[in-house]
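Exercise 7.
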Amino acid sequence: MHYSVSFPQGNIQYLLNTAFNSAIELCSPKDTIIITDKNIAAFYASKFQEYKAVIEIKAGEQSKNTETVHYIIDQLLKHEVHRKSFLLGVGGGMVTDITGYVASTYMRGINFGFAPTSLLGMVDAAIGGKNGINYQLQKNLIGTISQPSFILFDRNFLDTLPDDEWSNGFAEIIKYACLFDQGLFNELHDRNIEYYKKNNAALASLISKCVDWKNKIVLTDEHEHGKRKILNFGHTAGHAFETIARIPHGQAVGLGMLVACALSQSIGLTKDVYHKLKHTLGNYNLPTEVNCDIDQTIEVITMDKKRNNDGIDFVLLNTIGKSTIKNTSIKEIKAAIEIFINESNY
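Solution. The predicted structure, written as tokens, is:
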């Protein structure tokens, strides 16, 4: 399925269920530089032979920093990349984030596209135009909002995806279900990760739904001044857990959603939702406990980009499928995290 979405800076083509070799019809190989990580390059080097050059960076979130950006720019200069060149990010969320950031800033902006290779990238990270890098303890502190020319979804890349990366992707899928779809939440609650690994049609449907939901939100609020903030459900505490406990993004978001559900009980969310979410996370091999320092966690949260005066704009659930954004005090957040972490360590 192919379709285009119009943004102020132009149309984005979404190519679902599309083989990677179709990318040569979207960007000229002789003018295209591929940015990927060393793991993807090792598996798929034969797919990249027609392109002008391939820039390999170290795999992992720790590479999403200014040092890697400088390395990429040095390589772009080496290959005489100019304003009419094209960057193609082939990889997970780290690769697409950093590719979009470099493309948005190199020579004040050149065109770029994505071919996400992880489930998390396909359902969330590659969509929406947020590009950036981490700085010190802060996730995505430096970045841009700039849309790619296209996003190509080749599910064959998932054949080499490690098990823990499948789980990370499902954390974001569960997030969408919490925010938008009671029926899907129930379906995820009753099924497990193995079901979707074996059922291509069901997995394709999940990816398509997530792409559609994120697009609809981003089209109404590209620069996150209002409604787009709800997509941060689970991310405020999650980013802190990711930084302090040094766990993968999806695992951290799952834990962050549990904190958000605990906080949401103050606006009427029933306790059974918390327990259903905990069960669902377990179905997808996502942790429901964390061991980390509470004060450090709160320190990272207080530096969050969503801070608003003395509170944080926290995404809470009224019920599955209905959310709200509430300016929540640091004191309230700390109390919820203390309860959550203490229960985890019990």
